[in-house]
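Final report, Chapter 2: Outcomes

The project's central promise was a pipeline that accepts a single protein chain and returns its three-dimensional structure in a standardized token representation, suitable for archiving and comparison. That pipeline is now operational. To close this chapter, we reproduce one record exactly as it appears in the project archive, with the input sequence first and the structure output second.
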Amino acid sequence: MPDIEIKPLSPSPDIRAMLSEILIEAVAHGGSVSFMHPLHQEVANAFWEKSLTAAARGERIVLGAFDGDQLVGTVTLVLDLAPNQPHRAEIVKMMTRVSHRGRGVAKTLLQAAERTAVEHGRWLLVLDTASDEGAAGLYERVGYELSGIIPDYAYKPHGGMTGTMFYWKRLPVQDKAPA
């Protein structure tokens, strides 16, 4: 694996542009990340502006994986959940550049998201992935448990329907008392 550095991303035009490139590439290659192909630059930019603004407010943490100066992957940890769920977080928008897939970037990002969740008092993580060409294998290899599959949950970026697989993982932490 290349020497990958994982760090939280802050709102800046350069970061937003790099994140938009990854999102557009993921959708163009069939990634089921809530958008349809073709994904236009202004739509991707608007999404990341909103996401990074929420991160600046502490509602989420957007992590980036860097290979040198190049952003090669990202994952978001959503912290802003209902008041009766202070112990959990959601993993969303896990994406790796096509050039870096199969090289451990996604696993490294996921591990960093888990450590970050624990640092924020979150010990239960949930996520979902498409049943067609999603990342189920990765999630299962690192200990996520399948809760179930909902058929025809979303459209694929290039058309047609896909089911969605829902996963959870309990993280090891010392204190699981409600805040």
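Archive annotation: The first strand starts at residue 4 and ends at 8.
This record, like all others produced under the grant, will remain available to the consortium after the project formally closes.
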